[in-house]
Amino acid sequence: MRVSTLPTVFGERIVIRLLDKSNKILTLEELGFSQDDLEKYERIIKKPHGLVLITGPTGSGKSTTLYASLLKLKTPRKNIITIEDPVEYQINGISQIQVNPKINLTFANGLRSILRQDPDIIMVGEIRDLETAEIAIHASMTGHLVLSTLHTNDAPSAVARLVDMGVEPFLIASSLEGVIAQRLVRRVCENCKEEKPISETEYQEIKKYYPDILKKVSSLKTYRGKGCDECLGTGYKGRVAIYEIMEVDDEIRGLISKNVETNILRERAMEKGMKTLVQDGIQKVLKGITTLEEVLQVAQV
What whole-number distance in Å separates Cα of residue 8 and Cα of residue 18? Predict the structure, then answer.
C-alpha cells in the first residue's frame, strides 16, 4: 500500500493506493489498444534504440503500459534494467532498482550507474528534471532503447515539456521515437449492457471530435449499463485505456528541431494518422466498451 495522510480542518484525510502484487501483469494485447495502434506501438518499441515516452496524469495507467511493454520486449538475450519509484511489480529476468534519496540513489544517479551495466533496454520510472532527461536522451542516442513517463495532457505536448525543462530541441528530435498519451475510462458492465439510441447532442459531439467517423463505421450505436448487482448499480465494471500515439518520422523530427508550436505538431501528426484520445475513446464508445460521457469527462484537453 502507498499511504498519504493530510491534516485538514475537520480531521485527518487519508488516501491509500493498493498495489496487488498477486495480480498478473497485463499484456499489451489486454490493455485496450485498437489493432492499428497496437501494431504502431509495437513497431515503435521494437526499434533498437531511441526514446519512447508514455504521458498522462497520475493514475492513468502509465506504469501498467510500461510493464506490458517490458514483457513484450523481454528475452534471455536482452539486458533490461529499470529504475523506479516505487518498484510496483517484479518481473523475472529483469533487473529492477528502487529509487532511494536517503543514499542519493536518484533517477539521475541510478541512470548513470545503469549505463555502466551494458544494458540493451532501460526503463526510467519518470523524467522529473533536466538532469534525468539529458542522461536518458544521451542513453537513447548511444544505442539503448529508453522507456519512460512524463506528465503532459497529450502526446505532442511532451516535446514542449522537455523544452521547458531545458532540453535542446535538436536533441529531442534526434532521440525521440514515439510518444503515447493515455487515460483510463470505465468499462460498460457486460452483465447489464443494453443498446441506447444515440441522441442528437451525442451525434453532434461525436461529429465535432471525429468528423469522418461515418466513413469508418456504417451506423452509430451506443451502449450503457442500466445498473445491476454485478456493478453495484453504477452501470460500469472495470477500466480500459484510451490512447493517442504520435510516431516520430523524419518530417515530425524536422518540426521538433525547429521547435514549432504544439498545435502545429499535433495537426501534422493527425494528418499522418494519429488518433486523438477522444477519437480513440469514441471508437470504443461505438464498440460498446465505454460511454461518451465517460470519454469526454476523462479525455477532453
Answer: 23
Beta strands in the chain (DSSP E): 2-8, 11-17, 50-55, 80-84, 95-98, 121-124, 145-150, 176-188, 193-196, 222-225, 236-247
For residues 72 and 299, what is the distance between their CA atoms, to the nearest angstrom?
27
At 97-137, the pLDDT tens digits run: 999 989 999 999 999 999 999 999 999 999 999 999 999 99
Q: Using one digit for the tens of pLDDT, what is the confidence trace for 169-210?
A: 999 999 999 999 999 999 999 999 999 888 888 888 888 888
- The structure's pTM equals 0.89
Helix, strand and coil in the chain, % to nearest 5: 40, 25, 35
Q: For residue 83, give the nearest of 31, 149, 165 by alpha carbon.
A: 149
H or E stretch at 293? helix 292-299
**Cα(62)–Cα(158) distance, integer angstroms:** 14
The C-alpha cell at 129 is 528534471
| Residue 158 predicted with pLDDT over 80 | yes
Cell 467517423: give the residue. 213
Is residue 249's pLDDT more than 80? yes
Pairing outcome for strands 222-225 and 193-196: antiparallel
CB 86 within 8 A of CB 2: yes
Q: What angle do CA 120, 124, 127 make, to 5 degrees?
A: 135
